[in-house]
Design brief:
The chain is α+β, with helices and mostly antiparallel strands. It has ten helices and twelve strands.
Length: 285
């Protein structure tokens, strides 16, 4: 006799469990595929070479740049740079001359008071008055004549531009000779005595508040910080950024040629101090 097939009964509970397992497996597979696709799309969006996932690109360590060697070959030249900072009303806040002295092997910083008088164009007036009447060119000529030097390079910045540059290179360490608690119509300034790390905003206020002597010390600190922020092997990025935030006659040649003026200042960055610039006669000697 032919055997009758056995009847198999599946309970509703087992059927639901089977369907649940199938759903979980399908969902897990979907997550894996979707995740992999998302990662590949992301890598493609950032221009990652997908071939590296199969055969990683062989990389070789880039040769270390010997930046000290770059500066050791610099032929230091003497030069005077006129630095001016003005407020939002285009009134003088800071007059400074930053000089590279090839004979002494140092950088000297000299500051002048806008209220100081000088002879220019047949009249005697304050530097502030000369600037308002004759502009930056007249101011530069009057300062050069007063100091007996040639100011071939100049940099003019507003307080806003100065703050932006400091924001890029980092806070400036300044030795504050005495505590300051100043409340004025235009600004307030509170500083403890001693070594202080000043943001761009605090530095600009400190320059505005300080006398000429303290301004000179502050500019020394600014020059040292700025020069140390340059990469001697490739100074162009920071150089271009500073120039874009200034009114200046520095050119790209000053940072791209081996005899560019920037390299002179970089080579002397460890010898920055307050002092009067050498006159043209002293420099020639």
């Amino acid at each position: 006799m032919r055997r009758k097939p056995k009847l198999r009964f599946t309970s509703e509970q087992k059927l639901k469990a089977r369907r649940t397992r199938a759903f979980i497996l399908a969902f897990a597979a979907f997550v894996v595929v979707f995740g992999a696709a998302s990662i590949l799309l992301f890598l493609h969006s950032v221009d990652y070479d997908l071939n590296n996932l199969i055969s990683p690109e062989e990389t070789t360590a880039a040769p270390e740049e010997i930046t000290t060697g770059v500066l050791e070959t610099v032929q230091v030249q003497s030069a005077d740079v006129f630095y001016v900072c003005v407020d939002s009303d285009d009134s003088l806040v800071l007059l400074s001359v930053v000089s590279a002295d090839a004979n002494a092997g140092r950088i000297s910083v000299c500051t002048l008071s806008p209220a100081e008088t000088a002879a220019y164009n047949g009249e005697t007036a304050t530097f502030s008055a000369i600037y308002q009447k004759y502009g930056l060119a007249g101011l530069r000529e009057s300062v050069a004549s007063a100091l007996g030097i040639s100011l071939e390079r100049y940099v003019k910045q507003t307080e806003t531009q100065l703050r932006q540059v400091i924001g890029e290179i980092g806070d400036i360490s300044v030795n504050v000779p005495a505590s300051i608690e100043y409340r004025g119509a235009d600004y307030t300034l509170f500083l403890d005595a001693g070594e202080q790390s000043l943001t761009g905003d605090l530095f600009a206020k400190y320059i505005r508040y300080s006398a000429v002597e303290q301004q000179a010390d502050a500019v020394c600190a600014l020059v040292q910080k700025l020069l140390s922020a340059f990469d001697p092997a490739d100074p162009s990025p920071l150089f271009n950024s500073v120039c874009n935030q200034s009114d200046t006659n520095f050119s790209v040649l000053d940072c791209t040629q081996s005899d560019g003026l920037l390299y002179t200042f970089l080579a002397l960055q460890d010898a920055v101090s307050v002092g009067t610039p050498p006159t043209d006669g002293e420099d020639a000697a």
